[in-house]
Amino acid sequence: MTGPEPTPTVAVRPLVLPAPQRGEDLHVRITAPVTGTRLPIVLFAHGFGSHLDAYAPLVDHWASHGFAVIQATHLDSRRLGLAADDPRRPHLWRHRVEDMKRILDELGDLEASVPGLAGRTDHSRIVAAGHSFGGQTAGILVGLRVKDPQTGTAEDLSDSRVMASVQLATAGAGGDELAPFAHENFPWLRDQDFSRITAAGLVVAGDKDDLPLSTRGPAWTSDPYTLSRGNKSLLTVHGGEHLLGGISGYQSAETTDEDPDRVALVQQVTLAYLRHVTGIDHTDWERARQVLAAGHPLGTLESK
After folding, report:
1. What SS3 state is found at 102?
2. Fewer Cβ in 10 A, N or C end of the chain?
3. CA separation (Å) from 266 to 17, 178, 259?
């Protein structure tokens, strides 16, 4: 599977958005190609504890092939070091969604801070993407319902400005199969309803991603696909653990299944999907579906 040739990119960070009610200014990074117009936007949410400088293998790949990628440092980041008893902790999942909506509200000003970017993006083609905890964030923006552990209600926090999602190694359903540790420390995973997601989406799951958050094993991270409605696709990465070969950085010590071929697979399939779902080109996506339909050593790709 091969795609278009990469182009040079520019990255600017940190762009700072005041956020008094958040308790911390929101720091944002934008990575975009230096040429091109009507650039679709990928709004990317990092995993728990990470930050806006991570996931370069994905961000650089997408940006060098025609996408403006926007990242934020969310309140759960280790860079901010929230105390264990910080009153914002029970609301971390909601703060993430509010971070993303604030970015969408301020897109014009943010883009004007990147030399040469103003007027070159297409605000009608925005895809939310995220890894792990960030996958939940992306899912909420397209309709995933999360029952607030404090109020017991599951609000619709989706945003009509987001047309599709890419969820990588993301949490599945809660209930009795949620591990006691997760039930206590990540209460926003107790009850998730994937059936409300109507937007198109790609789910990426590693078949060796045996997280301690659920008793289900690796199949748990496929739930955003299996429990959602149609117009979804699932890339299953063979041998892939939680970082899918090393997507969180070029030299990430936390990678447990380091494999450049797995990373390349995720890069190529996610890019093909982004180009497909935003209407740029469907050729690479159809080719990926054919190549990965069955029997490929690196992974399988299915759709419904």
Report:
1. helix
2. C
3. 31, 27, 11
Q: What is the pLDDT of residue 4?
A: 72
Q: Which two tokens stand for residue 77?
A: 């980041």
What one-character-per-residue DSSP string does 45-62 give?
Answer: EPPTT--TT--HHHHHHH
SS3 77: coil
Q: Where are the alpha helices (DSSP H) in the chain?
A: 56-64, 92-105, 107-112, 133-141, 180-185, 223-226, 260-277, 283-291
Tens digits of residue pLDDT in 14-71: 999 999 999 999 999 999 999 999 999 999 999 999 999 999 999 999 999 999 999 9
Query: What is the reported pTM?
Result: 0.96
Q: 299-303 and 232-237: which strand pairing?
A: antiparallel
Give the number of other Cβ atoms within 10 Å of residue 205's Cβ. 27
- Helix pair 133-141, 92-105: axis angle to 10 deg: 50
Separation between Cα atoms, residue 126 and residue 279, nearest integer Å: 12
183 phi-psi bin (left φ>0, alpha ψ -120 to 50, beta other): alpha
Task: With CA atoms as reference, report the closest residue to 37 among 121, 132, 127.
Answer: 121
H/E stretch holding 243 reads none
Alpha carbons 160 and 127: distance in angstroms, whole number? 11
For residue 205, the 8-state DSSP code is: E
What's the distance, CA 74 to chain centroid?
13
